[in-house]
Design goal:
Elements: E1 2-3, E2 14-22, E3 27-28, E4 32-34, E5 39-48, E6 52-66, E7 73-87, H1 91-94, H2 104-108, E8 111-112, E9 117-118, H3 121-131, H4 170-187, H5 194-199
Parallel strand pairs: 7-8
Antiparallel strand pairs: 1-9, 2-5, 3-4, 4-6, 5-6, 6-7
């Protein structure tokens, strides 16, 4: 929780602060995220406005994850910027006669001060998760894994399987195998499907 008491609800009053906080649980996605308890460095600017306190800031934190191409562990750093208005608890009373229109959904999304305090975690979580790479890789040109044996291609650039058939020809290979079996049956004097007809 962060304290805004020093601003005194004076529009235009500013406060800057730097703080390091432990990362909350599950700050990330399935493939990359900030480890729970890791240090998150925050640089914040708090500004009192008519409706509440406008919080602008930057968060920096270490990331750990897995390369989506070669599945190797990776470490990066996240940097996320955010800006959010925390409304005063009595903002609804002061805006009671204001034009409301269809703002019910907006009110549900409004973040509010709890007395003079605000909880930054929801804002921090949204900002960090949205800043994460969708497809994290250990290096931009990571070649990934061999589709045949799973070997990491970056460790062996000359890796290959000469005997492996091109997957695009797999269907034709299967057809050719069926034809070969059919020709073998003809040589032996048995037409393809003859056994099935005899059974019927």
């Amino acid at each position: 929780m962060f304290d805004t008491r020093e601003l005194g609800r004076r529009p235009g009053a500013l406060k800057r602060l730097t703080r390091t906080v432990p990362a909350p649980k599950d700050l990330g996605t399935e493939v990359i995220g900030v480890p729970e308890g890791a240090s998150v460095e925050l640089e914040l600017r708090l500004e009192a406005v008519m409706e509440g306190v406008l919080v602008t800031g930057t968060a920096r934190a270490p990331l750990t994850g897995e390369c989506v191409r070669c599945l190797e562990p990776l470490e990066q750093e996240a940097e996320a910027e955010f800006q959010e208005l925390f409304s005063y608890p009595d903002a609804d009373d002061r805006n009671r006669f204001a034009d409301t229109g269809d703002d019910a959904e907006d009110e549900d999304d409004t973040l509010r001060l709890e007395g003079d305090l605000f909880d930054l975690e929801p804002v921090l979580r949204d900002a960090v998760v949205l800043s994460l790479p969708m497809q994290p890789v250990c290096q931009e040109d990571c070649p990934g894994l061999c589709p045949s044996c799973g070997a990491r291609l970056a460790d062996d650039p000359d890796h290959g399987h000469n005997e492996a058939a091109d997957i695009r020809w797999a269907a034709l290979e299967g057809l050719a195998e069926d034809i070969r079996h059919g020709e073998k049956d003809n040589v032996n004097g048995t037409a393809p499907g003859a056994d099935e007809k005899q059974e019927k």
